[in-house]
Amino acid sequence: MPQEIPEIPLVMAPQTAEARAIIGFRWNKSAGKRHKLGGSPDWIQNDKTPDCLSCFTAMSFYGQLDCIGDKIALGDCGMIYVFICFDCGETNTVVQCH
Ligand SMILES: [Zn+2]
Where are the domains of the chain? Predict the structure, then answer.
């Protein structure tokens, strides 16, 4: 069984005017605010939880990184999902967009 991590929302805290300027979307106000550790993946498409390449069991969801803004958007408001096998130390990522 994959290990489950309690959901911990992450909030961006840009430290410079340059960083503040690239955050956010003109037409999609929820995108860019879905960063988190743990919980369950907020899949944009179907569940694509990977199996560990070493032990062939389902990997644990570690977190997700949302797109940043209109200039760095991972396709159409996409997301990067991060997985880990706590037994083997293997990691994997999945990218999805609309
Ligand atoms: Zn493994």
Answer: 1-98
